Task: structure prediction
Amino acid sequence: MKINILGNKISWFGKYSGYECISDYFPDGTLVEVTAPDENFIHKIIGKLYKSFKKWNVKSTEVYAELSFIKKMNNSLISHILYVENHLHTLSLNQLRKKILIGTIHLPFSVWRQEELNQLKYLENAIILYEEELDKFSKYVDRDKLHVIRHGVDISFFKPDKSKVIDKNKIVFIGHYLRNFEMFIEVYDLLQDMEIGKNLNFHFIIPSFARNKKIISEIQNLDNVYFHEGLSDEELLDFYQTSYVLLMPMEDSGANTAIVQALATGLPIITNDIGGIRTYGGGKIFEVVEGQNSQSMVNLFLKYYHDEDFRSQISYRQRQFAKDYLDWNLIAKQHLSIYEYILNNN
Result:
């Protein structure tokens, strides 16, 4: 089977982060060709001309990658857009070629505009990375052709390290998209009113370009708050291995890279019961907070802080969940099964 993949390398992700990693884990003998945007000058010019012709408001580099991907569809049994939200404008083009196309849905239904949802009518087959909103998306993609597969993680890289010391006062917050920074400030203020609050250190891993919100500037000015970016894979891993909890209130969630990496490293997760969190063990493997209840989030943090045995139990359960359900090798085989199912039923 030859698989034609259109990927999008996220600039602040390292070698071991992101859904695009899947191409490295297909079993030996699988023919995989990955097309992704690059900075080639000629590619930019061609992409710019084509997007001007089509009146697409997207990057020139992405347009050239899309055109290359579409051309390769002629010689591939399966073509897969890994981040379909980024390429909705191309879906109607596929109708002209009548090839087998799959797109993966990452983002929660709440962030989709109606005109974007309408584009899904051109997508005959889709993978969605969480279960909770199947019914909502099935109004736009045939339910029988909408397949659920979890986001994977490299469990051989993202893993606990018993040789490292876990800092009880080290709290990490990773990412910026759909994070609830207002809720974080409420939680921070409640903790500061307690005796332990002055001992806590909050580490935010957020790239500079995503720090332009006023609320983030407010957080940067808080005591014992530290911001980081440009970390190597190993430096990022160290935060997962040495922090006490991942404290990450969310506004909504589909699949979340920080969540799967925290699961794999056994870093207890404190977040809301929202979006796709339950697909990744929320409410079963680790406790979740109802709604936007800041006091409940503080209470859950205190439960971890004052009961190290409880933390250890959750850490073990998260790691086992990742090994059982999120290993990229397993996830890649699940993708192959879906590809074969689609081919046999096309």
